Structure formats: C-alpha cells, structure tokens
Amino acid sequence: MKKHIPNSITCLNLISGCIATYWAFCGVWDTALLFIVIGAVFDFFDGMSARLLGVSSPIGKELDSLADDITFGFAPSAIIFDFLKQGAEMLPWHYLCYLAFIMAAFSALRLAKFNLDERQAMGFIGLPTPANALFWGALLVGTGDWLLSSPYLYYAVLVGMFVSCYLLVSEIPMFALKFKHWGWRGNEIKYIFLITCIPLLAFLGISGLAAVIAWYIILSVATKNRN
Q1: Residue 102 — φ and ψ, nearest 5°?
Q2: pLDDT greater than 80 at residue 179
Q3: How much is the CA Rg of the chain, to the nearest whole Å?
C-alpha cells in the first residue's frame, strides 16, 4: 500500500495543474496561481514521502516530470496566453498569443534534462520549473492590469517570457534551499536570500512573490562560482 502513496501525491500535483489551467483559460488568474501553489506543495511532499518510505521508483520519476510540466509548464503558459489574448490589439498578428505555449515546451525540456543530469543533487542547473511558474503567476496576478496599460510593457512580457525559456535550459548554476547543516558557514547565500525575502513579500504582496523569484535568479547568477 505504502508504495502507492508518493505516486498518489504526484497525481494530486497533476490534478492541481489541470485545475490551474482551467482557471487560467477562464481569466481567473488568482485562482490559477492558487492551484499552482497547491501543486507545488504536493510536488514537495511526493519526493519527501518517497524518500521516507523508501519506495522511489523509475515510474514515479517519470510521473513526477509529467505532473510538473502540467502544473509548472502548461498552467503558467495558459496564464500568459490569456494575458496576451486580452491585449491582442497590441500585437501585429493576433495569433502571436500562442507563443505563450513555447514556455510549456521549454519546461518539458528542462524537466527531461533534470532527470538525466547528475550534477543537481544539492543545487540546480538552470531555473527550476516551479520557480518559473510562480514568477509568472504572481507577476500577472499582481501587475497584469498595469502591464496591459502600455504596449511597451506588453512587449516586455513577451521578451521576458523568452528570457525565462532560456533560463530554464541554461547552464547557469542556481542554489537550492537544501541544508546539510543549519550553521551559517556554507549556507550564507541561502540565509541571505531567506532574510531578504521577508520585506519583499511584506511590502509587495502577491507581486512580492515574483520579486522573490527575480531576486533568486539575480543572487544565483551573482554567486554562481560559490554554488
């Protein structure tokens, strides 16, 4: 019985991603973001439960990647698609809003690379898909109306989407919040990141989550030789 627990939690992650995608297409981005967050919680606990129960399996690894691409690839792409569709009059060709789904493809590529890359035990190579999904969900929920107010900001979203696609599959080392011990030495970057996140979230609200992810990327790039 216990061998099915991690895969059941993974399926809950996948279902959360499906629900998030539905609400994204309905234009209810805050609910879509909520289910992406719920999916991220399930994603955290499926791996933990597999390790605690000692029931890791190849099928679980593949199922986890599939669920992650739905929740952290397709769902945020759907939010961006709906955003681009709402401001379609700013595009020279309205069908360009379908470019949003390129990010789902890059997310799948990033997850496939992660499964084969043995360098990512204590850190990441490239931007993790959950961080990317949370960035776009929080950014558009928090500032979507403002971003739709100007064609320049609208095009900035398009450019930013392609930048995030690059970051997903890049060779840039990024730290993970994994601790071998709780001391300061060796964990300086992680503690600095956690401490500085507090004012961002306190003062910026939902948009603060996007700021936290942006800060995570900046800090990872600035300290990449120490990761």
Answers
A1: -60, -35
A2: no
A3: 18
Q: pLDDT tens digits, residue range 80-125?
A: 999 999 988 877 777 889 999 999 999 999 999 887 777 766 678 9
Instruction: Please state, as a whole number, how many other Cβ atoms lie within 10 Å of the Cβ of residue 40.
Output: 21
Asked whether the whole model's pTM tops 0.85, one would answer yes
Neighbours of 167 (CB within 10 A): 21
- Give the rounded distance of the alpha carbon of 12 from its chain centre: 17
Q: What SS3 state is found at 104?
A: helix
Report the greatest alpha carbon distance in the chain. 56
Q: Using CA atoms, how far apart are residues 38 and 3, in angstroms rounded to an integer?
A: 22
Is the distance from CB of 70 to CB of 16 less than 8 angstroms?
no
Q: How far apart are CA 24 and CA 19, in angstroms?
A: 9
Q: Which sign, positive or negative, has the C-alpha torsion 82, 85, 87, 90? A: positive
